[in-house]
Every structure is written in C-alpha cells, then in structure tokens.
Amino acid sequence: MPTLHDATGPELTAAQLHDILRLRVDVFVVEQKAAYPELDGRDLLADTRHLWFSDDHGVTSYLRVLLDPGGIRRIGRVVTAAQSRGAGLAARLMDAALTVPGEYVLDAQTYVQGFYARYGFVAEGEEYEDDDGIPHIRMRRPA
User: Fold this and answer.
1) Residue 5: CB partners within 8 Å, gap ≥ 6?
2) Inter-CA distances, 5 with 28, 92, 124, Å
3) I need a labelling partner for 49 at 20 to 30 A (CA). Which of 19, 21, 65, 122 fits?
4) How many whole angstroms separate alpha carbon 113 and alpha carbon 137?
5) 54: which strand partners?
6) pTM (2 decimals)?
C-alpha cells in the first residue's frame, strides 16, 4: 500500500527530491515527449507544498501546490507513474491538497478537465497549447 507524504520545499530530503523529479521527467518529458525546463526554481521554496505517494519502488504519484501572488494556490505537476494509474492516487492527492482553504488555480491538460471539475474547478478562458503542442485549459476553484 502506498504511503502518503507531505512536505514543504525545505523539508524535502535530497533522495525524496530526486525520486519526485525522476517521476516528473519520466512522464512529462519522456512519455509525453515534451522537452521543457522541468526545473523551474520553485520546488525548494518554503511556501511550496509537495504531496506524493511512494511504495517500495519509489514515488508512484505526485503533485505540488505553489503560492502565487495574492495568496492564490496553484496546483501543478500532477502525475502518476504508468504502473500505478487507475488506483485513485491522484484523487487522493487532490483531496489532501485541497484541505487548506482558499482559492486554487491550475492549468490542466484538456483530456483531464473532467477530473478537476469533480473538485469544483471551472474552466476559464480558451483552450491553449503549451510550448510542446499539448492542449491545456486554465481552471479555477473559488475560495
């Protein structure tokens, strides 16, 4: 059974950060063939919250919550390892992330827009493609 972890940027160990980054690169860069700067300088900030599941094989599912200007929380980098998909891990991470009251935003790949809608996120604006041509939509969940 995977174990849930919750840590701020400074609380992450080097091994935890390595395993998180490995999963993100494996899925976003390699699997989705999106060559982009995965390291954006926000992972180790004191107000960045990391939530992830791990098992004996490493990190199985992950997301982070950033604090944007105006106190808005931004959910991003929601990812699950291929072998762990379908087990409800991303849903459990969303439940844990949304325990902190406030307004949230995210930029969803359009094919998972319905997943985020289950948590009260509403699309705003038009669909757009990121730098790698992957369709996204900005979504907001009011406080």
Assistant:
1) 16, 50, 51, 52, 53, 54
2) 21, 12, 31
3) 122
4) 8
5) 3, 59
6) 0.93
Say if residues 131 and 36 touch (Cβ distance below 8 Å): yes
Residue count (the chain): 143
Q: Answer for the pair 118, 95: CB distance below 8 angstroms, yes or no.
A: no
Q: Which of 65, 62, 38, 22 is nearest to 130 (CA)?
A: 38
Of 68, 127, 116, nearest in space to 94 by CA: 116
Q: Which H or E run contains 113? A: helix 113-117
Tell me the per-residue pLDDT of 15-25, one tens digit each, with 9 for 90 and over.
999 999 999 99
Q: Using one digit for the tens of pLDDT, what is the confidence trace for 37-83?
A: 788 999 999 999 999 999 998 999 999 999 999 999 999 999 999 99
